[in-house]
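Lecture notes, structural biology module. Today: joint structure prediction for complexes of two components.
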Amino acid sequence: MQKEPQKTLPFFGVPKVLPYVKPYRWKIVFMVFLGILSSLIDSIYPLFNQHIINHNLAEHTSDTLWIITVAYILVLAFQVWNNYYSAYMCSRMELWMNRDLRNAAFNHLQTLTFDYFNRNSVGYIHARVMSDSGRIGELVSWRLMDFVWSGSYVVCVVAVMLVTNLRLALMVLCLVPIAMVIVTFFRRKLIAQNRRIRELNSTISGDFNEGITGVRAIKTLAVEERMNGDFQKDTHEMKRESVRAARTSTLIGTGVSFLSSAALALVLWQGGQLTMESILQLGTLSVFMSYAMSIMDPLQNCINVLTAMTTIQVNIERFTRLMETESSVVDRKDVVEKYGDTFHPKRENWEELGGRVEFRDVTFQYPDGDEPVLEHFSLTVEKGSSVAIVGETGAGKSTLVNLVCRFYEPTQGQVLIDDRDARERSQLWLHSHIGYVLQTPHLFSGSVRENLQYGRPDATDEEIWHALDLVSAGDVVRRMEKGLDSDVGEGGSMLSSGERQLLSFARAILADPRILVLDEATSSVDTVTEKAIQKAIQTVTEGRTSFMIAHRLSTVVDADTILAVKDGKIVEQGSHRELMDRHGYYWDLFTRQYVDMAVDMAMHGEE
Amino acid sequence: MARKNTNELYSTHTSLLMRLLHGSKRYFLLGILFAWLTSLLDLVNPRIISFTVDSVIGTAVPSLPHIFESLVNKLGGVDALRLHIGYIAILVILIAVISGLMRYTFRMMNAKGQEVMLQSTRDLLYGHILSLPLTWHNKNHTGDIIQRCTSDVDVIRSFLAEQLTALIRMAVQILLSLYFMIGISPAMTGMVALFIPVIVLFSYFFHVRIEASFQKVDEMEGQLSAVAQENLTGVRVVRAFGRESYERARFEKKNDEYTGLWDYLMKLLSLFWATGDAISGLQTLLILIVGANFCLSGRITVGGYIAFLSYSAMLNGPVRQLGRVISGMSRAGVSIDRIRYILNSAPEHETEEATDADMSGDIVFDHVTFRYEKPEKEDGDEKAADDVPVLDDVSMVLRAGQVTGILGSTGSGKSTLMYLLCRLYDLPEGQGEIRIGERRLPSIPRDCVRKQVGIVLQEPYLFSKTLGENIAITRKDASQTEIERAARTAVLDETITRFSKGYETFVGERGVTLSGGQKQRTAIAQTLIRKTPIMILDDSLSAVDAQTDARIRAELNREEGHATRILISHRINSLMHADHIIVLDKGKVVEEGTHDELYALNGLYRKICDLQSPEGVQA
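The predicted structure, tokenised, for the full assembly:
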């Protein structure tokens, strides 16, 4: 959603991650130490071999074999312990880092304002919390370990080779830069190809989605052939790119094993000669051969880690960008001091809220908008009165509501709550006194009780039932198998959309807010539920200052003030009568909706 | 879900796999063949080394397979090799080049097989899904189908391209290694062979447990992810109720649980790795010591000793993997069943040969009764109440070349009538029939019907393409003039020219969200460009204002005067000029006639008229 950043962070962005690593720094140091030790031991193993061939076999004696056995078992025991311990520790490091980063991202999100959520899709933000953290955690654990182990293994082996036979060692080392060039070159290519594959993958998922959700349109338009053709183009492209990427990674693998063989050939040729001239012992030759062959893989690992850094850098940058996004609505210092912050409220200092709301000469422009949507707008909403906001989908009806809730702050002018500037009290204070019923009623997975207690955690069962009955949802819940303990499913999926709406009304009533914000649903529900909802709206708005983004004519007609919004701006304002007499935009909207209702009224009868 | 049924196209797992492997089998088989050749060549190297150590550097009498012996003799015998040990190096390089080519071919064949398989599987699924009847789509959830087409396909890919081929490959690799090892020392090979079942079984049992643990972690990840998802989609509720602290605690708790499960899993894995290391370490030690003793007692040569060590090292990897591969294979069965469910569902089938049909006759609904199959997806207009039919003995005639208006409330069955006309659903036997001209509708192939009936759906669906492409979706050959003409008739051209990219504007692109009315008008243009003899507007003007509504109808009369037009609406103003108006209520035709006739009838139509008249609105 958001544009990828132009600036790149220095040192692959690693410094940005350091604060999260700090609590575990000693553990990581120890881990690195164990990694080095492990590679050291791994590079020692062939020496047992060498000793047996050079000493026992060459001199035909089994005198030291038992020492070898004991030593081998000791080394093995230590190595097994070390491998277990460092693998487990490494995993935990990854897990802990992941957990911490996820928590940090999630908690930071709780403090951000809506312009962030409007700018970025849920999927995008979700990925920042769930997957970026994973990649970063992997970096400081497995990738680091891989690098340490492989790096130090290469160093150890090279050192042993150099000490054993300088000339032979140098010859083998000549092959190293070739391997590095090959691997680096192809890895780069591979990363770009993999990115392309990921893109195609989401295209194909999107195609499936379109084919399934749009099946009615596809069938009625009879465009199956065209859709199939377009889809096959995408899968064909996917095949081509995937095979291409497979070729690149195969070339790396083949190249590296070829170089291993080349190293072997080199040692066999030069070393064989030296051995024949008795300069080199047979056991040493054998060790050299194993070293020559085993050095290439760790070398490849090191380069893999380095190239992977460039992709992980992207994750770090995205994560950092999230963490550095500042909330555009921030409570003043003195306000925080008195009222507390989001996570540490000082409820003892909170005043009651009456419910008088006043817009005083408010000008407002969305942070990403080109022009102000409100200009010098003034409106007083008395305690307990209601405002209905009407207009077409996408006309910008939620602007006023966003300002009342202080999800945004006016560019100029003031919003006053109980005659005091909203900025003089904390956001949490305000939110604790506002009830919000959403257009798509959002329930959290869990029981009915948990959902209703969302607005008031200490509500008793009695109060909950009372609230449910007030909105005629009591029977719905009573019919459910476990009553208040019934599971509502993910996002409330076990309930119908009408039932979800009723529950969210009950939730708002329980919270007993002074100000109520209601975003009415447009989706059609059956007549019984429709009636229940209408009644619920009346119940819930009674005695409360309410702002309603309204679609139901009954809701609109009864409101004290109606605001008609078109293209983001308020074009008409007044009571239903006044606006109908004006024969303007509101009249047009109203009659258009009325015809639908008229048909239903005539056919289903009105009682 | 996957019942054994002889009518099913793919009655067994194997039959489905064979279908999916269509076209990719040869790549996989070639891949396996080249894999075997690669392992064979890999096994030659230690042999060369042992020969070099024993007979070139040492003095043992060479015992080589026949081809190599003649090769050595051609080069001038062992003595020549001693002078030119470089020959051996060249041989090693030569083998490396050949084995490199083999390895490359093997991997590429496997990759190609995998991708060809994926491509044909995806194409097969997509095409099949499009051909499935609407009743099937109503029964199945989108998310679930997509998951089957992505995750389950991937599980099958990994089964075929990674597990199954690896199993065949590794079995041969192990056998070959053992064969070469027997050549050096049967006794020591026996010792190594004893370890194989131990390691495989150990690895298998571990992985069964790991797999179970993985499932738990997966589930937990789903839960954690859902908490984050819910928090983000419900951000307004969270803020409005001031429950940030609660959300934080909730997330952290799940996060801890998730981390804890991973912790256990990783402990298990670390233990597995370490134990594996210990077992293979002991195996190596055994060979090291026994081999040294054999060497000392002269049962094997030094070169053989070195070669044997390499072979046993080579054996290690595949043996350990074997357990994992076997334990992972159980997953595939479930996924295959899930794919079979889709592919075994019967597509809309044609009863007759595809022929062209004249669709310009009168449309006759003759005693039509229809009810939807029970498990219904929520779908606005057509929510079926228990056993009440959506259409109840409906008979009517829609005259060719005329405009018929249909008035009805939500749930009166008017959309269903049109779906039946498009053959989205078919009438069961004995529930009446629909005729166009003299032909019974079921005798006209679906494709033919749909190509000639242009319907603008109540809820328009736009494709993720440009606006221009959307309008011309049915006609790739449409010229820009035709597209613009359709847009003009649908009163959409002014809107489009306001977008900076005009007809090239991508639907759903950031910043360009079409309003309900704009979507409806795009769908109208989409249908207009088809020039079909029958045209249906199913409540397609509900989101546009009265003037635009009138303008569109006027344009339609001008452009489509010859077509049979059906206009469904709530708005008397939209319907009153129709040649014939039908009032539908609760699945029954209650009134029909012209506007004047119906008005004079003083019934339901009149009542709606009055309610919608300016005086009625004011009331």
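Point to remember: Chain A touches chain B through 144 residues (CB under 8 Å).
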